[in-house]
Design a protein that fits this description.
Length: about 700
Amino acid sequence: MAAKESNWPPVPRSEILPRTRAALRERFVYCDEIADVLSAAFYEPCNLLLWGPGGHGKSDMVMNAVKGLGVSEDEVFVQSFGEGMSEDRLWGGPDMASLDTCLRYDTQRSFLSPQYKVVVFEELFDAPAQALLPLKDVLTRRVFMNGPDAVAMNARVVIACTNKDPREFADGNDAVQALMERFLLQKEVRWPAYEKKHYRELFAKVHRDSSMGGKELHTQLSKVIAGLNETKSFVMSPRMALQALKVVTNCARMRPDKKITAEAFQSIRFVQGMQSYTAELERKIEKQLPKNADFEIQLTDQDLRDDSPGLRTPREKIPAVVHSTLKKRFIHSQEIIQVLTHAFLQPCNVLLWGPGGHGKSDMVMTVLKALGYKDREIFLQSFGEGMSEDRLWGGPNIAKLDECLEYDTDRSFLPYEVVVLEEILDASSQALLPLKDVLTRRLFMNADQAVPMKSKTIIACTNKDPRQFAKDSDAVKALLERFPLQLEVRWPSYEQKDYEALFAKAHPESKSDRRKLHRIYAHVIANLNDDRETGFHVSPRIALGGLKLAANSVGRHGRKKMIVEDILTIRNVQGMESYKHDMEALIRKALLEGGVEVLLSDIDERAECMHGRMAEINEIFESAKDLDEEARGDVNDEAINAMLDLMSGMDQLKRELIFIQVADPKLQVWKEITEKKVDELSAEIEAGT
């Protein structure tokens, strides 16, 4: 029996399949089966579930098919589900105007709004049962009881997309099983194979007008990617492959001769998802490239043409600005120079992660200001456990609270061209899910108003390892995919030379005495690293803070030279609490190897203090002469005990001098003078007793 014709979708039914197929073939490979099932969903119409590994363009295929069928954007509703999905969000949030009478939802902000004909639910099966069960009922009855009112569901097609395998996920979960039964059509979206020819076909579809050099790049990169794939542990998705092509192409954009060299292919390591790659990435990339040393590919303006809106700084100036800005102030900054250059050239989002104290946010803000952005033009927001959807979107618009829940989006990141989000992985799912949705669609539905996201580059910083976080949270995993570039920010080593280089960058005008202090302090810190458990390093922030405290301690106490007590001020720096009991011994041991000057200064200082203490004790003996016999005995006993402590202290100084071994003639002279001074003082004390 022929299906009944209707006025939706807005094309003849006979054209649904060819139009869907044409829309998908323009951009995707292995898409004919997906086009067939999508056309079936629109032809009936009925609900469809698309599932499979991330990065294969499930949502993109749906949106391209919708556009190819002439469906207006105003008729499409897209919503991200996940761990933080609630019934409130599903039905549009509370209707503020009716809260004084009953709990009703503002369904105009949900998929039930009558203008929506197509509904796309992303990551549907990540949501809790509290959201899935009522959704199942509405998909069955096509009516939602909103207080006393029945709200009809007008959507013709509901398409759910998920990275999970529903066959595994539905097992033992009645809510998921019941909801799955409301999706008549179901299809896994993945490539049948991930070989060189498949990636090359993808590149050819996305870049149809490439030059001969561009096509050669596609061939070489396809070979590299296929060589990186490991069937059981890692396969590069189409999304990752396209991003890899962008970063490699950017390397030619940075060069005046517009050439791709073998080194350019190493930029693949910045692509989202490559952080989980366990094999030696650099070696495996080199293995797939031609062996000739002069290998290069010449690109043309045709390959580098980019119609996407860039940042305010011209693209050709960005590499030099980023490089000069970071090299001037930071050490071990080469990789972050590269990843930020790629992010600003494209432009696209980037995630910087790694241990605290390495200046991730500082580097980003420094570069953005060098690119011409003032503080008020950079949106900076800290996330955390208390981050809420209200704060994310600028807080409620108080003037409209009696009508609806609308946000003051002018106070959010949406109007800003560049955005920095700190500690993004500390936020709850309730905040991360809607953020992921907006980063995908670049549009935020604020009540009934569509607010475009003007942000071109979002830089997220976190001290957490996203690889670990993504294992435990589907919301985090989905959000991470919206940051095409990712880099772990840490030093390759934490040795004396690294800290000396840091101090030199921070204090470029230092004179020889200050540079000597830098050397000694760097040696001490490197030794502290060696003494701790694997994985601990004194961060650049702690090192600079400790150096500043040590220098201040010298000045505060009116000393001309640094002593051990000045270096010990590092124990008051954040992060060093666990060193309080053994730090002095560790520092003295380190100074024996690389800071004898400080130890000699320390002994000189303590000897001077002991000389003063001896004078005080002699005054005590003198004051006792005028007292009666009993009182004189008590005072003399006190003075004798103090003198014994003083003698013990002198013996300690002598022992320390014995352990100090020096080869430098100047230091040897200094040590001899100190030894003579200590011996004279010791003799004076003994004579006094």
